[in-house]
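Annual report, structural modelling task.

Input specification for the S-adenosylmethionine complex:
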Amino acid sequence: MPEKLPEALVDRFGRHVDYVRLSVTDRCDFRCVYCMPEDTRFVPRAEILALEELLALGRAFVALGVRRIRITGGEPLVRRDLPWLLERLARLPGLDELTLTTNGSRLAELAGALAAAGVGRLNVSLDSLRPERFAAITRVGKLERVLAGLEAARAAGFARIRINAVILKGRNEDEVLDLVDFARAQGFDIAFIEEMPLGAIRSHDRAESFYPSDRIRADIARRYPLIRSTAGTAGPARYDRMADSATRVGFISPHSHNFCEQCNRVRVTAQGRLLLCLGQEHSVDLRAILRDRPGDDGALQEAIVKALAIKPRGHDFQVGGEARIVRFMNHTGG
Ligand code: SAM
Ligand code: SF4
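The model returned the following structure:
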C-alpha cells in the first residue's frame, strides 16, 4: 500500500512551499545583457516539456497544496499555444492565483488571450524608458512595443501590473526616479531587482555594475518619502508605499537583504528540472518521471515531496564573486 502523501509541502527548515514558478521555454526574443550572452544556445526542442507535461506538473503541485503558480521563462509569450496551458492551469481546483512574467514584447497581441485564459496578474520587465538604452540593454528589444503591450494589458483589464526593473550601475541607475514616475503616472507597481550572478556573462563585470537596493531606496526617498510597508506578497519583494500614490515600490535584494528564511517557492525549468533554490544546484529531474511513467500523477507527487528534503537553507550569492552557478536566468525561470 503506497504511503499517503502529505497535503502540504514543508521542508526540513519548516518552510512551507505553496508557490511554484514554471518555466515554459528557455527561448526568448530579447538578449538582456544581465540574463544571457548574445550568442546564447537554446536547448533542443525535444528536451523542452510539452504543454501536457507542464499541465501534469501543475496538477501535481496543486494537489500537494501549491496555491500560486507563476509562468515564466525565457519569454513565456514566445511559446506557441500557451493559452491552452494557462486556461487549464487557471481552472485547477485549489489554485488561488496564476500569474505571468513577461518582457512585454508580445503583450500587445496576447494580453486579451491571457486575461481570457485566467491569468490574474502580470509582471512586465522594463529597465529603461529611453529607446536607445532599452535597445542596448535588451540587445534587440523595441521600447515602443513594450509600452504598447502595457497599454493592451491595461485595456484587457489587468489591474496591479508590476514593472520589474534590474538596475545596473553605469547602465540605468540614473533612471530610477523616471521609472518610479512612470509607474505612478500609469498606476502600476514597480519592483527594483538586484542583479544576480547566474551564468557567466561577458557584457559587464557584475561586481562593478552592482547597485544595491538601499541606494535605489535613498534615490527615490529624495523625491518621494517612502513608507515601509509590512504587506507581504507571495514573492521575495519587500514593498514600500508613497503617501500620495497607490503605486507600491518593491525591492528584490538577494545580495543586500537575503530573503531565504521566508522562501516559499520552488522552480521548474523548461526541461522539467525541479530547482529547490534559485542560487544552488539542488534539483530533481521530473521530466524523467513524466516520460517514463506518463499519466502517473502519484509518482510525480511522490518525487516532489521527496525533493523537498534537499531544499537548501539558502543561496550564497556574493557581490564580485565568480558566477558559481553556470545556469543562466533564462534557464532558471526568473
Ligand atoms: N522574459 C521574461 C521577462 O524578462 O520578464 C521572464 C523571464 S526573466 C528571466 C524574469 C526576470 O528575471 C526579469 O524581470 C529579468 O529582468 C530578471 N533577470 C534576468 N536575469 C537576471 C539576473 N541575472 N539577475 C537579476 N534578475 C534577472
Ligand atoms: Fe529574455 Fe527575460 Fe532574459 Fe531578458 S530577462 S533575455 S527578456 S528571458
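The pocket of iron/sulfur cluster (ligand 2) is lined by residues 28, 30-32, 35-36, 73-75, 103, 125, 329-330 (CB under 6 Å).
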